[in-house]
Amino acid sequence: MGKIRVAFPHVGNYYVPAKFLFSNILDVEVVDAPFITNKTLELGEKQSPTNVCMPFKYTLGTLLEVADKADVLLQLGGGCKYGYYGELQEKIIHDLGYDIRFYNIVTAGRIDFFRVYKYMKEIDPKFKIYKGAYYFFLTYKMIKYMDSIDHYIRANVGFEVWSGEFLSINNKMLQEFSCVKSYRELRRIYKKYFKLIRSVRLNKPEKIVKIGVIGELYTVMEPFSNYYLEKELARFNMSITRYTNASYLLFSKGKYVRNNIKRVDKYVKYKMGADATDNVIRTYDMCKNGYDGIIHIKSAFCTPEIGGMGIINKICRENDVPILFFSFDSSSSSVGIKTRLEAFNDMIEMRNG
Amino acid sequence: MESYLGIDIGSISTKGVIIDSSNNIIVSSYIWTNGDPISSVKSLISELKSKLPTDYVVKGIGTTGSARKLIGLMVDACVVKNEITAHAVGTMTIDPSVRTILEIGGQDSKIILINNGVITDYAMNTLCAAGTGAFLSSQAKRLGIPIDEFGDMALSSICPARIAARCTVFAESDLIHKAQMGYKREDIVAGLCKSVVLNYLNNVGKGKKIEGPIYFQGGVSKNKGVIKYFNEVLKTNVKVDPRGHLMGAFGVAILASRIKSDKVYDLKFTDIDFETKGYECAKCSNNCEIVRIYKNNKLIDSWGSVCGNVGT
After folding, report:
1. Residue A20: what are its φ and ψ, rounded to 5°?
2. Is beta strand A293-299 parallel, antiparallel or unpaired with respect to A110-111?
3. Which residue has the higher pLDDT, B265 or A146?
4. N or C: which end of chain B has fewer CB within 10 A?
5. Do A343 and B85 touch (CB under 8 A)?
6. What does the alpha-carbon distance between residue A31 and residue A246 come to, in Å, rounded to a whole number?
7. Cα(B181)–Cα(A31) distance, rounded to whole angstroms?
8. Are B301 and B289 contacting, i.e. CB atoms less than 8 angstroms apart?
């Protein structure tokens, strides 16, 4: 019998650190899920409840695409207000007749250390806690480095002289990241690419248009699900800022919200679930820091974000910062999105004179 | 003399205007798209050309509307702009003091907020087409009322029926229910007009500060019933320009006139053969729908793929 095969859904480029982590701490074979395409969405949509959000459909679609190639599925759903996220996907997959083990790492918005330890032991009885901790730390650092490079790329990709240069450097970096052995090696690679990425030739105008992208976490992080919004914005020579990324969500979100919610107590007093509170704080900060516009994206039917939208709209109106809301559904057409983005760009150009 | 052509190709109708260099409309035309933008633009242009005085030469063409990219390619336009900017530019030229533009077209509805001649905010319906022209015309058909009489009929109602405004499907079942209960036709028609207004304000206009002067445009602005309920709900008079339906074409013609080029267009498109072929690329599971445009059987452009593959 071969090794146990493990698979998990895609979010942006984070399959690289996830694969790195699981293939190092467990004696398993990590199966690469196919990248998200229209087929993924079709599959996910067919098996999901109609009114569930798009991330559910995307991740379920990916899981179904790899289900017959894997023995164990991992899912991180459950940070959402919609509590039975992973549980429902598990049920759907089992009801479809797949004899497959399903582990949901995040339940009820929390990662319970002992439960995850138990899961790891179940997948691989020889799982060692110190080895797990070492690679967890390494993965944590890797995600941090990835996000910091990403942050720089997003701010500058609209001004690159040779288009595609950032992307190819980033892909090379991910490739090297995926086979590091030690922290020192990881750091060396990061430093190398840090320098490389800053040496990319840019053609920056005097006045840089700064756009903030906020919204529901999956839609923000998975470019397929937002119809490559950031790519479109970069085409208009805009500098994009996005704070929602894996390192923020997994490691610093709780503290950030706790420490900053006071500053926006004029608008929110209590946590609103998922990322709505964070987005309100981010909107407030972006409005105060002279951003030229904010784009809020979410999947249709995402309850926490719907709650936040009214407040975000109010903050933007008070500070006279234009905001554009997008709600993506499986039937959204990319042409309509382009029309709105084009108009958004025209508007900002007109405002800036 | 110099003149500039603006074409607005919408889902339902195709609009064209030719303006002179001081932004006066010389000729205009309004025809149905009938689902075939290429041939409707051909007949639109030949109509405009026959009406245009011979001492004018067209020095710029702009296109807008949902088929702007295709038609822009076909007529070799110097400006291809989205409807939002085009409408705003057109309306601001007519009335520089405009603050709000309400626009309800065949398939989309939008609101544009303007301050000091600058677009400050806008919104466009995203997921739902409830309360647009297509909805009204399909309901008019269901009730057996010609769409031009719809507005007048609504005005004659004293007590409009309450019709759910949220969703086209629910509005339709509500409408059938009201009809089966024996409501008068004019009350139902008035209720529909009101539901369009409420749906628009709750959906597209949500959270937007609507200030006067307000201009109401798009095909639905020809409907007197809808105008009446906009006035009633907003508690002011919305302005409807008789040229309101041409505003997109007018705006993009102005944008074309701002581009200084020496190019002269002869407006001879009738004998050029344009063809678009769509096919599903099978190279990966994205199955992108790639559209290829042929001019006299020669491939001139292609779009629609995620990866940049043009399809050979």
Report:
1. -55, -45
2. unpaired
3. A146
4. C
5. yes
6. 21
7. 61
8. no
Helices A113-123, A129-156: inter-axial angle, 10-degree rounding = 110
CA pair distance A231, B306, nearest whole angstrom: 11
Identify whether A205 is preceded by a cis peptide bond (ω within 30 of 0): no
Mean pLDDT across B168-173: 76
pLDDT in tens, A299-352: 888 888 888 888 998 999 899 898 888 888 877 777 788 888 988 998 898 888
Residue listed under structure tokens 């009738």: B270
Taking alpha carbons only, the member of A292, A271, A110, A302 closest to residue A213 is A292
List the alpha helices (DSSP H) in chain A: 15-25, 38-47, 54-66, 85-95, 113-123, 129-156, 165-177, 183-198, 217-221, 229-235, 246-247, 253-260, 276-288, 303-319, 334-352
Q: Which residues pair with B121 in a beta bridge?
A: B113
Amino acid identity for residue A240 in this structure: I
CB atoms within 10 A of CB B259: 13
Rounded CA gap, A269 and A181, in Å?
A: 45
Asked whether the beta carbons of residue A326 and residue B85 sit closer than 8 angstroms, the reply is no
Q: What is the rounded distance in angstroms from the CA atom of residue B129 to the CA atom of residue B222?
A: 19
Give the span between the Cα atoms of B250 and B245, in whole angstroms: 9
* DSSP classification of residue A251: I
- Answer whether A39 touches B (CB < 8 Å): yes
Provide residues of B within 8 Å CB-CB of chain A: 66, 81-85, 108, 118-124, 126-127, 207, 209, 284-287, 306
- What does the alpha-carbon distance between residue B109 and residue B217 come to, in Å, rounded to a whole number? 10
Q: Could you tell me the two tokens for B59?
A: 């020095």
- The closest alpha carbon to B161, from B175, B146, B145, B172, belongs to B175
Q: What is the pLDDT of residues A65-95, one digit of tens each?
A: 998 889 999 888 766 766 778 888 999 999 9
Of A114-128, A253-267, B216-230, B293-307, the poorest mean pLDDT is in B293-307
Tokens of A260: 């900053």
Side-chain-side CA neighbours of B143 within 13 Å: the count stands at 29
CA pair distance A93, A99, nearest whole angstrom: 9
State mean pLDDT over B158-178: 79
CA-nearest residue to A323 within chain B is B121
Which one, of A310, A322, A330, lies nearest residue A352 by Cα?
A322
Decide: A285 and A313 in contact? Cβ < 8 Å: no
Collect all residues of chain B within an 8 Å Cβ-Cβ radius of residue A228: 306
Lowest mean pLDDT among A16-30, A65-79, A212-226: A65-79
User: How do residues B63-76 score in pLDDT, each as one tens digit?
Assistant: 998 888 888 888 88
Return d(Cα A277, Cα B90) in angstroms, integer: 40
The dihedral built from the CA positions of residue B205, A345, A350 and A158, taken in this order, carries a sign that is: positive
Mean pLDDT estimate for chain A = 88
Tell me the percentage of chain A whose pLDDT exceeds 90.
38
Which chain A residues touch B66 with a CB distance below 8 Å? 335
| Residue B120: predicted pLDDT | 85
Residue type, B167: C
Strands (E), B170-311: 214-217, 274-280, 289-295, 298-303
Q: Note whether B98 and B114 are within 8 A (CB).
A: yes
A316, A321, A327, A331 alpha-carbon torsion, rounded to 10°: 160
- Two structure tokens written together for A29: 């074979």
- Whether residue B84 and residue A34 make contact (CB cut-off 8 A), yes or no, is no
Whole-prediction pTM value?
0.85
Give the confidence band of B186 by pLDDT, cuts at 50, 70, 90: confident
Mean predicted confidence (pLDDT) in A204-216: 91
Q: What's the gap between Cα B178 and its chain centre?
A: 31
